[in-house]
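Good morning C.,

I know you're traveling, so I'll keep this short. The sequence:
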Amino acid sequence: MKSLYIIRHAKSSWGDFSLPDFERPLNERGKKDAPVMAQRLLDKNTKIDLFISSPAKRALKTCKLFCKEFNVPEEAILVIDELYHASKEIFYNVIGKIDNKYEHVAIFSHNPGISEFVNSLNTNVHIDTMPTCAIFAVSIDCKSWDQFESAQKIFIRFDFPKSL
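The tokens, ready to paste straight into the viewer:
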């Protein structure tokens, strides 16, 4: 069994409208929420052995904050350009190419694609929209990531900062 943690970037800043969307940073709430959400995973003894992120500033910073909590060096993050505003098809493509030595993977990306993707997983759990810094986790009955799309997925959890 493999496990996948789909994580939307934390709350971003709209303070500088001259910045391109790609360059928007996290706001103060986002900088606080990301470590809290990472800690919630750690509190459940979650293991993540690969962190994958969109290259957009807010997604990558969220991923870096999770890595800090998991005691993983930032240099270990796999940045994949296609995850910036990815469609569900791109998520499936990226996941299908993950090296099989990784069992527990976290992917950081954006709406609306991330919500579309989690709702395509056939877990009988529907999310209207992934809130910022939300985590949607599934276990996958497969030995190889290239089997992900057709493999049975079992819902593990859905969590987000305001859920408590």
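Safe travels,
E.
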